[in-house]
Target: DUF3857 domain-containing protein
Amino acid sequence: MYKIYTLLWMLAGSLLLLPQAGATGQDALEELAKDANIIIRSEETVFTVNSINSGTTTYNVTLTILNEHGNHRAKLYVGYDKLTKVERLEGTSYDRFGKKIKALKSKDVVDMSAVDGGSLFTDNRVKIANLVHTVYPYTVEFAYEVSNNNLLGYPRFIPQDEERLSVEKASYVVRVPLGTKLRYHESNMPQPVNKAATATHETYTWQVQHLKPVETEPYGPGLEELVPVVRTAPTDFEVEGYKGNMESWKSYGMWINQLNQGRDVLPDATKQKLIALTANAKTQEEKVRIIYDYLQGKTRYVSIQLGIGGWQPFEASFVDSKGYGDCKALTNYTQAMLKTVGVTSHHALIRAGDDVTDIRTDFPSSQFNHVVLAVPMPNDTLWLECTSQTEAAGYSGSNTGGRHALLITPEGGKLVRTTDYTAADNSQLRHIRVRLDEKGSGTASITTHYKGLQQESRSGVIHHLQPEEQRKWLYKQVQVPSFEISKYAFEQQKSRVPVVKEQLELSLRQCATISGKRMFINPNLMNKWTSVPNQRDKRLTEVVRDMAFLDVDTVEFDLPAGYAVEFLPQDITHTSAFGEYNATVKVDGQRVIYRRSLQMGKGRYSPESYTKLVEFLNNVIKSDAQQVVFVKNIP
Model:
């Protein structure tokens, strides 16, 4: 406790010596510092729209770093490109007594490419200002100004953008010329926007103050659902001569159509080759798969981000001759090839990523970071990830599945959902045969079929790791107490829901425990549920499960001669709103047959249901730990 109050005293002294940071009473300061790594003392963002294609953003922040976990906020990253210019970048740091540590100089600012070596054509760069200190607490101030000739996306106000961060005060001001329509969306804001006007501009101001640190809960919503957020977007905009309107998804799609127009022309020789390749295809889907295989064998992904090239694809003829392109270019190229063989398809803008939140469907705006191709089929849609050289045709997976995409049709944009995967789609079906010896050791032959989302890690291993690296990876993944891998093999079946077959031969040490004349076996050899998150006194947020799955394990143990069953667990079933668990153990002579299945769904549930989830998972853990006991008949 002494350390806590010492820290608060030092913090108070530091902040009160910085009049530009404002003053905070001791009680309020203690509330802001509790459970925090960083306190934002003051943050102000002012975004001024000069015209439909130009604007400026000024940013000023003063924040206090309380410990080493907040040091990343003492680094400021300011991105720029051909359409964006950093006009000013300043920074100063102070120690806990308010004494200046360092004023940022131009030589202290690192200017580097904003992308990795996988990008061949890019003008995206970033300036990095570093004021990290090693004695806590310390305070940093940053200020910058950026001018922009691309107003496709307006700034977003999210002052509390990470956990264990508190905010004394923060504001966001948008200034637009009189008569210009600003579109905005507020979430969790304590107060709505304050509107005012000058002789030349309308001003929109949002403010927050005294925000205590927020922490997400296990199986809970993401941080963005819990904190204040303001999203802003233009109505009319222009990027390098291409004018558009974003008032609806339809009109936004029409702007994308402008960018894509006339860029799908292929050389005649390529067209003839594609027609010949698909001449014997019996269905439209077979044509698509042939073209997709051709794409994967011919091209590779290279990011191309040059001005309007961040949104406009390179011509199909360019990709055809060079053999590379970014997501837009490769999608456009695939669409052109399919058009050649009589198959209609559409670009689709999407927010890709394993753990990203879905877009705000009620707020048309630039919320996407990727492009895929949608091919309408008689009964559904075939989705193609055109940047991958290994993915199965039609598989969206964790990167783009189960979310909204903006389909770009000739009539404009239209929101649709990509493929959602059920528990049966994401299955793990395993059969194990174990042969035990008198000492409780033995060998195991294991065949597992991983499907859908559950096969993705294995698919990555197959395509990106060498055999010796694969073996090392398996040693980390196999959940058996003591073993050696004798043999292993992978086999992948590419389909709309791909499957990886994994075969293992293991040498097991002490798979069973011998105590006198008894042998103890835990029949769940490889798939035990082992942990449950802590419960708080009161659950505050909904329970969120993002993935449905089905695991079925069948384990057969061949016992050494002379053993008979002494204790056999009863059949077990646990059922809840979250899923169902079943386990059975049968004995057939010298063979023990264990079967366990666990199916869990996805969805959102009330905060009160969390105790039921914990109860269900605790029951699974207890059931997974049960043992079968055998006794040796001694003549």
In short: Confidence is low (pLDDT under 50) at residues 1-24.
